[in-house]
Amino acid sequence: MVEEKDIRVAMRDGIKIALRVYRPEGSGPFSALFACSPYRYDNNQLPAQPMFPWQKIGPIDWYVSRGYAYVHADVRGSGFSEGIYRFLDREEQKDLYELIEWIGTQSWCNGKVGGIGQSYYAMLQWFMGIENPPHLACLGIYDGLNDPYRYMGYPGGIEGNFLPHWFNAAVRVANLYPANAQHPRQVTYDLPLDVQNHPLYDSYWRERAAVERLDEITVPLFSIGVWAEQDLHLDGNIRGYLAAKGPKKLLITGAPTTSSAAIDFADAAFHEKYLLPFYDMYLKGAKTSHASRPNVQYALTNSNVTRSFDTWPPPGVKPRTFYLATGPSGSVASLNDGTLTDAPPRDGGATSYSYPNPNWVVGTVVVAPTGPDPARGVLTFTTEPLARELEIAGSGKVVLHAATTRDDMDFIVKVSEQFAQSPEGRARGIQPRYVIVTKGWLRASHGKQRDPQRGSRLCPWYTHAREIKLIPREVYTIEVPLEPIAHIFTPGSRIRLEIAPGDSQITDGLFSHIYRPDKIGTDTIHHDATHPSALVMPVLSA
Known about the structure:
CATH class of the largest domain: Alpha Beta
Oligomer: single chain
Helix content: 10-25%
CATH superfamily of the largest domain: Alpha/Beta hydrolase fold, catalytic domain
Radius of gyration: 24 Å
Strand content: 25-35%
Number of strands: 25
Largest sheet: 11 strands, mixed
Distance between the termini: 52 Å
Shape: globular
């Protein structure tokens, strides 16, 4: 393998972008793979372990051994590149065009360049397709969001914990202390302050949102999402697949955690099975198995089943409504232990809760003698045990008829499969086992302005362009969209809906929301015949 280090390529404004080229010995020409991020190529020697969650470049040596050149660039203002880092801004986007054209015209390149990489590398691939340089031949986008406002800064319009942590750990620290100790770099841009100054979806976020221009992508696309990345990347892979105009396929894997998704991408076996046939087809002109792949294929969570369809959501999905009622379900200890029923309760009443709850310890999680208890400090509404399997695929919503003593409400909702529990365990007060299936977030003051072109009746899409404050104690209808999922509930399990004004690092990790000091009040959810609050699920018929 030939390794060319610290090459600098001049951009239109004179700024020089640094890159490293890995290629086979000989003159070629070779097809090229291109990866770009602020995580700097000086860290490529680090293993792809959960300790380094930003190490998402794939097996470089393995691709070179199969006749590919691999080019890895540091975005402007990071690594050995000149300029100032500005987080996905237009200058960073335009650099991609010039870098791909530089690669495509090198003597060792056959003129075809494909995008590669996970997370930030995948996020930039959406912009590669939008910029559409002549030598770009395809995009292999694994695990990549295209809407940083909704999935990094303000999920549901609520301040998120992810972006400031990511920026400090993955960008600033990774640049200042590179693994090879070469070219330490201070990233001076104050991204957290910029984010704080832009709480609404304004021109700052639109500039950085590839979701605004996905329909301009015409090169072949293989969009690979991961169910475990609901909080961050999953929507981007699905939305990008739906909007792109060129040849395209969608795959969603069942990697159980974000860490396992990164480990998969580092594994050559994953690339040999999925991405190599795609690259060989579009970069080398080979006949491969990718041509016969189904348009849409996904792992069905809670099973060993893989589904294949021509469309997403799959045909045959119908909404099924479960109505909130007072309860008790007798199946879980929570603030209220409400129920979910098949018909609106005639006199279902209402449920009120005040916050912050004095029993919360880590976010909304109560710490009991047996350890952290995520259910005990939130509202729950639970069905009877399911008599038969229930399979869902797509996106749903939670409809809440709610009032508050404040001028706003935050709703963080989670849908779980609550597994069967023995009567003895329930009598001893042991909480039932469960797994979160899907979740959603919404600040109520953002819930009045929708974009019908991007949303649907089953899954609303909010513009987040402005706040419309609430009148205290007036009842509002709030629809919280749920993240897409494909899951099968087993007989004997229950469907459980959790509702809270916050969440916790115990349950949501880096993707939890910030709980603001001024969030003090009482909310009331009405669930009677006049106010049929409900969970609406996308059920796939047999």
